[in-house]
Amino acid sequence: MENFTFWSPTEFVFGRDTESRTGELASRCGAKKVMLLFGGGSAERSGLLPRIRTSLKEQGIDYVDFGGIRPNPTADKVYEGIEVARRENVDFLLAVGGGSVIDTAKAIALGAPTDVDFWKFYNGEAMPQTAMPVGVVLTIPAAGSEGSGNSVITNEKTLQKISVRYPMLLRPKFAVMNPELTMTLPAEQTAYGIVDMLCHIYERYFSNTPATELVDGYSEAIMRDVMDQAMTLRYQPDNYDARADVMWAGTLAHNGICGVGKTEDWASHRLEHEISAIYDVPHGAGLAVIVPAWMKFCAKRNPDKLWKFAINVMAVDPTGHDTEEIISEGISRLEDFYHDLGLTTSMRELVGTEPDIDAMVKSLERNMGKVLGNYVPLSMEDCREIYHMAL
Amino acid sequence: MENFTFWSPTEFVFGRDTESRTGELASRCGAKKVMLLFGGGSAERSGLLPRIRTSLKEQGIDYVDFGGIRPNPTADKVYEGIEVARRENVDFLLAVGGGSVIDTAKAIALGAPTDVDFWKFYNGEAMPQTAMPVGVVLTIPAAGSEGSGNSVITNEKTLQKISVRYPMLLRPKFAVMNPELTMTLPAEQTAYGIVDMLCHIYERYFSNTPATELVDGYSEAIMRDVMDQAMTLRYQPDNYDARADVMWAGTLAHNGICGVGKTEDWASHRLEHEISAIYDVPHGAGLAVIVPAWMKFCAKRNPDKLWKFAINVMAVDPTGHDTEEIISEGISRLEDFYHDLGLTTSMRELVGTEPDIDAMVKSLERNMGKVLGNYVPLSMEDCREIYHMAL
Predict the structure, then answer these.
(1) Residue A324: partners with Cβ closer than 8 Å, 6 or more residues away
(2) Which residue on chain B is closest to A250 by alpha carbon?
C-alpha cells in the first residue's frame, strides 16, 4: 500500500424526503443567497425545485435560479454562471441534479471569486487558491461528484473535455441523497450512471500497486452489488432498496475510498472523453464502448488484476481454465452485462457514423501528452489500437 | 436501507513517516499551544514523542505534556487533564496513542470549555454544546477512535464504563496513521485490537434492517481481510502491508461507513464493558469471551445474519448442512480464530477467578436499563445467560 491522504468532509444526508432539509443544511453553511443550479424542466415539473425553494425560504435564504445546464456541461455555461453569481452576489452554490450540474457549480465556484479565467484551472495554466461553497441535491447517481473533489467541463471552442481534481476546494459541503428522486430516471440514464460508477471503481481497482487486498476486497464487493442491483432495476425501476444501493455505491465509487493507497489508472475515462467531446454522446454510453476494448488490450500485457476481476467480480469459475480463458470470459460477461443494460459496446453503433479516430487521438495527445494510464501505460498508438478494437 | 447521515470530516494522513507532518497539520487547525497526551514511556523511548515535539516546534507551536494515560481510561485522569488544559491555556489536544489516549483527549475536549461536570455528558445528565479540537497520531489500531465521534471512559468511583457518541463534536480533525509505528506492539495487544475492530463491524453487521446488501458486502470483505492479515501478523509482526490493512480496517470499522442505513446492535460491547470495568481486563480480551457466547445465544432466536456470517466471512461451505450446523461451524471457526490469536474464550480463564455475574448484571441494568441490543433484544436475564455461556 502506498502513502495516502483521505479527506471526505461532505455531509451525506441520505434517504426518503431528505430534500426537505436542504434549507437547514444550507443555513448551517452560512448561506444567505443561493444560486440554484439545475438542468432541464423535469426537476421543476416533478415539484422538486419548488420543494427546495420552499425549504430555502423557510430558513430566510434568498436564491436565484440558474437552469438549462446540459449533459457534458460546457465552458460557455460556466462563464454565464460566473457572471450571474457575481451580479447577484450569491454566497452559496446549490446544485440540483447529477454530475453535469454539480460540475458546473464547481467550475463556477472556482471561477467566480477570482479574476483568473476559470478555464486555466482546467487546462493546467493556473492553480486555484479558493472556491465558493457548493451543496448538492443529487438526482442522478453516476458521476460521484456529490462526494468528490473532481469536476469535468467541456470547452466546445477547443473541443477539449478536461477533468480536474481539487479535493481541498471542491468537495461539496453537503449532499442530499434521496433514492426516490431517481426512480423516474429513464432506463438508459440509469444504465449510463451504473456504467460510470463502475468505471470509477475500475480506474482505481486496475492498479499495479502491490498489497492492496483490503481496498480491492471492498471494491469488489461494491462492484458485485451494483451489478446485482442494476439487474433488479431493469425490471423494477421503482425498487427503493436497489435505487438506494446504487446511489450510495455511486458516492463510494468516487469519493476516494476505493482508491486509497493505490496508483490509479484513468485511461478509460480519458479515452472516453474524446468520444463524448466530439460526438456529444453520454459519458456512460462511451465508457461501455471503451472499457471492454481497454480490457482486451491489457489482457496479455498485464493480466493479473483482470484475472482477479473475472473471478471475484464477474464470478468466472477458474477451474480447468487458463488465465487467458478466464480473463476473456470475464470481459465477455461484462459485455453481456452492458448489453443487458440496453447499451452497445460498438463505437460505430454508438456514434452512428464512422468515428474519426485520428481526431480523437490527436485531441488526446494534445490534452494528455504522450502516455495515458498506469495499469498498462498507453502510447498514442496503443490508444489508436484501443479505439479500433472498440469500433 | 434506513435513512442516515454520514459525516466523516477527519483528514487521514496514512503511511510511512507521516508523523513528521503532525506539526503542519496542527498548525493548519490553528493550534498555538498543544496538550500532548500519551500513555506510558514507550512512545518516549521509541523516539516518537521527541519527533512529534520537533515537528510542533518547527511550526512554532508550544506544547505541554500529559502522559500516564492507562488502558480503560478513567474519569480521574480526565478531571486531571481538564485542569491542566485550563491552567496551561491549550487550544488543541493531540492524542499520541490508541483508543485510551484518544478517548481521554475527547473527554477533556468536552469538559475543558464548560463548567458542567464532564461525566454528565457520559451518564446522560447533560448534552455538550461545544468541544475543543482533537488531533491524533495513532499507535494502536483497535478502537477506531481516530475516525469516530465516540469516547469510552470508566468511572472507578461508580464502577461505570460508558461509551458516548457525539459525531458532530468529537470526530478528530486529523489522524496521522503510520503502520510502522504498530510493528513493535506486543502480539497480544495486536490481537486485542483486531478483536475489537472486528467487533465494531459485527455490532453493525448483525442488524435486522432489511435490504443492506451493499453495506453487508463491503463489511464482509473488510472482516475477511482483517482475519487474513491477523494470521500473517502472528508470524510476521513487521509485515508492513498486513499492518497497513489492519490499521485502515480499524478506521473503517468504526467511522460509521459499515453502519450506514442500519439499526446497530452494540450488545456485545455493553456486555463486555461490565467485565473490563470490574476486572480491568483488556477490552479486546473481554470481547473474545463475549462475542461467541452472544452468537450462540442468538443462533436460534435470529439465525439469518449468523448464517450469512458463517458462509461469507468464516467460509463455511453450506452444502449438505442445515442452518444450525452452518451457524455452529461459523462460531466454532471464530473461536478457533481467537485461539489462534492466543486469546481465551473463557471468562473464568480471562479474569482468573469465578466472575461475579450478579454484579455485572446489576451494573448493566443500572447503566443500560432493561433491554440491550437490537439484533436480539436482550433482557437482563438473557444477559445473565450469556455471561454464564461465556464462563
Answers:
(1) A299, A300, A303
(2) B214
Distance, in Å, from the CA atom of B242 to the CA atom of B137, rounded to the nearest integer, reads 19
Nearest by CB to B241, which of A1, A9, A12? Answer: A1
The percentage of residues in chain A with a pLDDT greater than 90, rounded to a whole number, is 94
Query: How do residues A231-273 score in pLDDT, each as one tens digit?
Result: 999 999 999 999 999 999 999 999 999 999 999 999 999 999 9
Question: How many C-alpha atoms does A254 have within 13 Å on its Cβ side?
Answer: 30
Residue from A21, A24, A122 nearest A79 by CA: A122
Residues in chain B with CB shorter than 8 Å from the CB of A241 are: 1, 210-211, 213
Question: What's the residue count for chain A?
Answer: 391
Nearest CB partner across the interface for B214, out of A5, A13, A222: A222
Considering CB atoms only, which of A2, A13, A244 is closest to B1? A244
Cβ atoms of B92 and B132 closer than 8 Å: yes
Cβ pair A15:B261 closer than 8 A: yes
- What does the alpha-carbon distance between residue A341 and residue B148 come to, in Å, rounded to a whole number? 39
Interface ipTM above 0.90:
yes
pLDDT at residue A160 above 90?
Answer: no
Q: Do residues B327 and B292 lie in contact, with contact meaning Cβ atoms separated by under 8 Å?
A: no
**Residue A137 and residue A96 in contact, taking contact as beta carbons nearer than 8 Å:** yes
User: pTM value?
Assistant: 0.97
Q: Report the distance separating Cα B125 and Cα A247, nearest Å.
A: 39
Q: Which of residues 207 through 226 in chain A touch B, CB cutoff 8 A? A: 210-211, 213-215, 217-218, 220-222, 224-225
User: Within an 8 Å CB–CB cutoff, is residue B182 touching chain A?
Assistant: no
Contacts of A319 (CB under 8 A, 6+ apart): none
**Of A10, A18, A260, Cβ closest to residue B248:** A260
pLDDT per 10-residue tile (average), chain B, 391 residues: 96 98 98 96 92 98 97 95 98 97 98 97 96 98 96 90 92 98 95 98 98 98 98 97 98 97 96 91 96 97 98 97 98 98 98 96 88 96 98 96
**Confidence label for A155 from pLDDT (cuts 50, 70 and 90):** very high
Nearest CA in chain B to A244: B1
Contact criterion met (CB < 8 Å) for A245 and B214: yes
Tell me if chain B has a CB within 8 Å of the CB of A79: no
